[in-house]
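**Reference record**
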Amino acid sequence: MRRLRGMMLVGVAAIGALALTVMAIQNPGSVPVVSSADQPCTKADCTETQKVAAKAECSATQQVAAKAQCDATEQVAGKAECAATEQVAAKAECDAPCDATAKVAATAAAGQCPVSAAMGCLPKIEHRVGDQVTPCADTAKKLASEGGQPIEFLVAGKAYATEQEAFAALVTETETFVAGFAEVGATCPATGKTKVAGKDFSCADSAGKYAGVAKAAMEKVAMTYAVGDEKTTCAVTAGKVAEAKGDKIQYLVGGEQTPCELTARLKLAQAKYKAAVQALAAADQAEQAASTKTGNTGA
């Protein structure tokens, strides 16, 4: 009986195997195939996978941290470099203007004319032919003739094609320069000092008083308008008289007369500047004399 039951079980298994074989032959996709990848991993396999994942995660974390550290270092270094550059630029900007009063003191000590030295700070026309620059018009003409190149006229770093354009620019630049000469400048961030007319002041009040000396001197210089025998200091009045008489206006500045308004404006600016420089030079000399006297008295 047992043998018969065993034979029956073997027969059933054989029939099942035969049925699967037939199904596989008739429809290969209908029989599930178990791959090695679907098998549950062993403990060793799982440990190795965890190690690889952990290593990748650590590497990524380290890379992020390293990049953040590099970025922070670059920002600190960049900020320090920018700060240093700004300080250098600020100091250069503060020292950039032509120090007229400094020239006055230096040339006066050397026995030279202080006003002449200060006047050299005013804007001027230069001539450029090719890559050569000269303040002399005759030299420029010679260079242009020899090289067959045009003359460019330079004022405050800008080039103009004609002398008339350059002269108009010169008038404007000179007026701007002179107006700013007597103004109290902004405090320099690099030195903490305030500049007036090329002179540094640690005290704002002293700077203001010094500027006041220059402005007072400038206000005393004025232009006079002449139409025939009539003279006035009012431009509007001069215009009306000239229109009524059908005559031209003559401009008088410092004893000089010209029919050209641009020339008169230039001469007026130059005269104001000269008066301011002279007044400041006198103030410096008075201050120096008082300081010397105080020192001698104290001794």
Residues 30-39, 81-97 have pLDDT under 50 and may be disordered. The radius of gyration is 46 Å. Residues 213 and 280 are 7 Å apart (CA to CA).
